[in-house]
Amino acid sequence: MARTGGRTCSAARLLLVLGTLVAITSTSRLSPLELVTSVPSFAYVLVVQLAGIAAVVRALAPEKRVLHVYGLYLAGHGPWLAALLGVCAVYIFATDPARVLLTTAPFVALVTAGWGGVLTYACFRRVVGLTRRRAWAGLGLFYLVMTTCVLAYFVVAGQLLPILPSEGAP
User: Fold this and answer.
1) What sign for the dihedral angle of Cα 143, 146, 149, 151?
2) Is the pLDDT of residue 87 over 70?
3) What is the pTM of this model?
4) Is 42 exposed, middle or buried (0-12, 13-18, 19+ CB in 10 A)?
């Protein structure tokens, strides 16, 4: 495998699963047109994750290669891939997918976020070689950068501010 092959494969797999989720949840089937148009629209997810990894590596382990750490971080997306494919399965097989997802989504999201956090911490601890304290700091920095990037994206896209309550509104 080429040096960047694993990173490319993991990134493509994540985009394919996100595109599949959008295609199935918007059409209740795997529509090729929906898949082709939705896959590239989620490329920002990879950019945001790369920004988070780059911030941690540059701040806490500047001697490490950002793309190497990023490639190994992408390999830890198993919990999210499983959760997203589970949502797709609910849409395909459940008679009332909305009811099933409303009752299970909070639990699945918490477990998946926790499992993903553990894997990200492990990446910082073992791959980057940080001490426990610095790995926790890296985890906090990673999620701070990602959250800031996502919020900024939705503010710039004009999607966030209109749904926030304004001062003096009933």
Assistant:
1) negative
2) yes
3) 0.81
4) middle
